[in-house]
Write the C-alpha cells for this entry.
Amino acid sequence: MKKNQDQSLLNYSKSFSYFQKILKQSALAASGSYGLIASILLCTLLGWHIDNQKEEISPFGILGGLFLGILIGFYHLFKIIRIK
C-alpha cells in the first residue's frame, strides 16, 4: 500500500512540474494578448467618454480611441515578440 501512495505522489509531482513548464512557456503569449485586449478596450472606453462629453464629434471619439488602442496594443505585442 505504501508503494502505491509513493507512486501516486510521484505522478502528481510530475504532472505539476509539467503544468508549470507549460505555464512558463505560454507566459509571453498571454501577456501580449492581454495587453492588446486591454489597450483596445481602455482606449475605446476613453473615446466613448469623450464622445459623451462633446456630442459634436460623436463618432470620432470612439474611432480615435479604437485606433489609438490598436496602435498601442500592437506596439506592446511587437515588443514582447522581439524579446523572445
Summary: The chain is about 95% helix and 0% strand. The chain has a mean pLDDT of 85.
